[in-house]
């Protein structure tokens, strides 16, 4: 049975916050999203250019229409904009029994007010008492509780005030702006405090409040306990910030898709590289081209998600010569390659679509053949490596790949080097995916 979650919020034309963020979040958790739009904002990552409020009657009608036909397992509020909308929302949601998460949206990241000055009282009087959970950030918690928040103890006091004095069932004060060494959120619920910690990650923050509260709502709709829903939402938002797409010229948006995209892409990579590896094993004369240090065959996640070694799959223990055959020591795993990973991550800085590579023993004959087949070949000379890069562990391959790409000012199919003291000469084949790399390999050696 599919669960249904409702967002009562404003629209952000930039797609980063508001109902757009909420719907993407609901989808990421496999929950059917329903909407009651309160306000239309002309907004981007830099500013809010215009606000057009929907009539309170139409806001109420949207809620009634979806509850009475489709049903709502949990709901959230975001931008409520003015006192009349707040009153209409309160009167309508009171008729129903679903859990309600209240994100007390007051000011956009860009600084624009999203709640009229005279609506604060209505928010406190009419909406907060209906909340299963209120999710303020530092400044919102200060406005609701009427106290200044300097650190964790103050955040706890404010959460308690929101519950005990304003009438919410629970409150979580988010610690993004608490100047602590970690992002610590403090929940007060059922007369108990609970802390949720995550490292501060650099990334995209537009829509964090909306997406966090929507993630809690989606998980409540799925029947999770409040504490568990918050734990999952914290993990979700940390990932969304880290993998945010660098779009626009202001605060870039959270990536709600990362939550489902990364596992899906990982599966595609396993499948594609695993199949290509099986085919590689069946190439007859490949052992003649295997280097003494072994071969590897790698495939990286798409550029947005390919940040480190753990985001690139390769063959555990490499592929080694075994009589007149080749054999993978282990199978496909993320984080299993070092050298080729450094090469592909550098290559992807120039050509993000090129995500796969394989290494062979260098041979002059293969290089001549590659050129005669029209493949683009470039090289680097380890003897030309600057001393400061040589001194840095793991710096040679990134420098070499960059040098080779800049040498031809084009996208090479093959990069080779002739080795150095203790370094075996090597040839690397690059391609968009393992199938393309295999095709180039077969052209070369068959
Ligand atoms: C339509 C709309 N609703 C809510 C917001 C707030 O989003 P943002 O500025 O990113 O702040 P947080 O949600 O991250 O606290 C908005 N900008 N637009
Ligand atoms: C390309 C290359 N250079 C030295 S060893 C090697 C083979 C693959 O190494 P890894 O398994 O670390 O990617």
From TrEMBL:
Ranges for domain Thiamine-phosphate synthase ThiN: 273-442
EC number per UniProt: 2.5.1.3, 2.7.1.49, 2.7.4.7
Alphabetic keyword roster: ATP-binding, Kinase, Multifunctional enzyme, Nucleotide-binding, Thiamine biosynthesis, Transferase
GO cellular component terms attached to this protein's record: cytosol
CDD domains xref list: HMPP_kinase
Recorded metabolic or biological pathway in which this protein acts: Cofactor biosynthesis; thiamine diphosphate biosynthesis; thiamine phosphate from 4-amino-2-methyl-5-diphosphomethylpyrimidine and 4-methyl-5-(2-phosphoethyl)-thiazole: step 1/1; Cofactor biosynthesis; thiamine diphosphate biosynthesis; 4-amino-2-methyl-5-diphosphomethylpyrimidine from 5-amino-1-(5-phospho-D-ribosyl)imidazole
Keyword Kinase carried by entry: yes
Domain (Pyridoxamine kinase/Phosphomethylpyrimidine kinase): residue spans on this chain: 12-255
Record InterPro entries: Aldolase_II/adducin_N_sf, HMP/HMP-P_kinase_dom, PM/HMP-P_kinase-1, Ribokinase-like, ThiN
SUPFAM superfamilies: AraD/HMP-PK domain-like (SSF53639), Ribokinase-like (SSF53613)
GO biological process, alphabetically ordered: thiamine biosynthetic process
GO molecular function: ATP binding; hydroxymethylpyrimidine kinase activity; phosphomethylpyrimidine kinase activity; thiamine-phosphate diphosphorylase activity
Catalytic activity line of the entry: 4-amino-2-methyl-5-(phosphooxymethyl)pyrimidine + ATP = 4-amino-2-methyl-5-(diphosphooxymethyl)pyrimidine + ADP; 2-(2-carboxy-4-methylthiazol-5-yl)ethyl phosphate + 4-amino-2-methyl-5-(diphosphooxymethyl)pyrimidine + 2 H(+) = thiamine phosphate + CO2 + diphosphate; 4-amino-5-hydroxymethyl-2-methylpyrimidine + ATP = 4-amino-2-methyl-5-(phosphooxymethyl)pyrimidine + ADP + H(+); 4-methyl-5-(2-phosphooxyethyl)-thiazole + 4-amino-2-methyl-5-(diphosphooxymethyl)pyrimidine + H(+) = thiamine phosphate + diphosphate
Record function comment: Condenses 4-methyl-5-(beta-hydroxyethyl)thiazole monophosphate (THZ-P) and 4-amino-5-hydroxymethyl pyrimidine pyrophosphate (HMP-PP) to form thiamine monophosphate (TMP). Catalyzes the phosphorylation of hydroxymethylpyrimidine phosphate (HMP-P) to HMP-PP, and of HMP to HMP-P.
Protein family according to the UniProt entry: In the N-terminal section; belongs to the ThiD family.
PANTHER family in UniProt: HYDROXYMETHYLPYRIMIDINE_PHOSPHOMETHYLPYRIMIDINE KINASE THI20-RELATED, PHOSPHOMETHYLPYRIMIDINE KINASE
Protein name listed in UniProt: Bifunctional thiamine biosynthesis protein ThiDN
Species this protein is from: Thermococcus sibiricus (strain DSM 12597 / MM 739)
């Amino acid at each position: 049975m599919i669960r249904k979650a409702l967002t009562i919020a404003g629209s952000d034309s930039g797609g980063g916050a508001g109902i757009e963020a909420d719907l993407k979040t609901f989808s990421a958790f496999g929950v059917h999203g329903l909407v009651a739009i309160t306000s239309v904002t002309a907004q981007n990552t830099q500013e809010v250019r215009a606000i057009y409020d929907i009539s309170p009657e139409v806001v109420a009608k949207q809620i009634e229409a979806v509850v009475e036909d489709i049903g709502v397992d949990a709901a959230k509020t975001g931008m409520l904009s003015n006192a009349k909308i707040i009153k209409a929302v309160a009167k309508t949601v009171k008729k129903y029994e679903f859990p309600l998460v209240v994100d007390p949206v007051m000011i956009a990241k860009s600084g624009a007010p999203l709640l009229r000055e005279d609506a604060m009282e209505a928010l406190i009087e009419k909406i907060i008492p209906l909340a299963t959970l209120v999710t303020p950030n530092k400044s919102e918690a200060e406005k609701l509780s009427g106290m200044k928040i300097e650190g964790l103890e103050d955040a706890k006091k404010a959460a308690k005030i929101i519950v005990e004095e304003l009438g919410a069932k629970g409150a979580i004060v988010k610690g993004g702006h608490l100047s602590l060494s970690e992002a610590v959120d403090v929940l007060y619920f059922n007369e108990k405090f609970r802390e949720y910690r995550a490292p501060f990650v650099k990334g995209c923050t537009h829509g964090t409040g909306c997406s966090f509260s929507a993630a809690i709502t989606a998980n409540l709709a799925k029947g999770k306990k409040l504490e568990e829903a918050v734990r999952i939402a914290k993990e979700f938002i940390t990932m969304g910030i880290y993998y945010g797409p660098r779009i626009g010229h202001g605060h870039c948006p959270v990536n709600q898709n990362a939550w489902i995209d990364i596992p899906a892409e990982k599966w595609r990579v396993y499948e594609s590289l695993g199949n290509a590896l099986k085919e590689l094993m069946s190439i007859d004369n490949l052992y003649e081209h295997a280097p003494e240090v072994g071969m590897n065959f790698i495939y990286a996640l798409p550029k947005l998600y390919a940040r480190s070694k753990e985001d690139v799959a390769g063959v555990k223990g490499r592929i080694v010569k075994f009589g007149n055959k080749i054999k993978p020591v282990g199978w496909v795993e993320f984080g299993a390659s070092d050298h080729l990973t450094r090469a592909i991550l550098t290559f992807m800085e120039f050509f993000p679509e090129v995500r796969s590579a394989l290494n062979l023993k260098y041979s002059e004959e293969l290089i001549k053949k590659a050129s005669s087949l029209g493949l683009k070949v470039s090289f680097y000379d380890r003897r030309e490596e600057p001393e400061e890069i040589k001194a840095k562990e793991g710096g040679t391959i990134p420098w070499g790949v960059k040098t080779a790409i800049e040498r031809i000012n084009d996208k090479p199919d093959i990069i080779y080097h002739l080795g150095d003291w203790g370094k075996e000469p090597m040839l690397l084949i690059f391609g968009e995916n393992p199938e393309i790399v295999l095709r180039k390999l077969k052209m070369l050696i068959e």
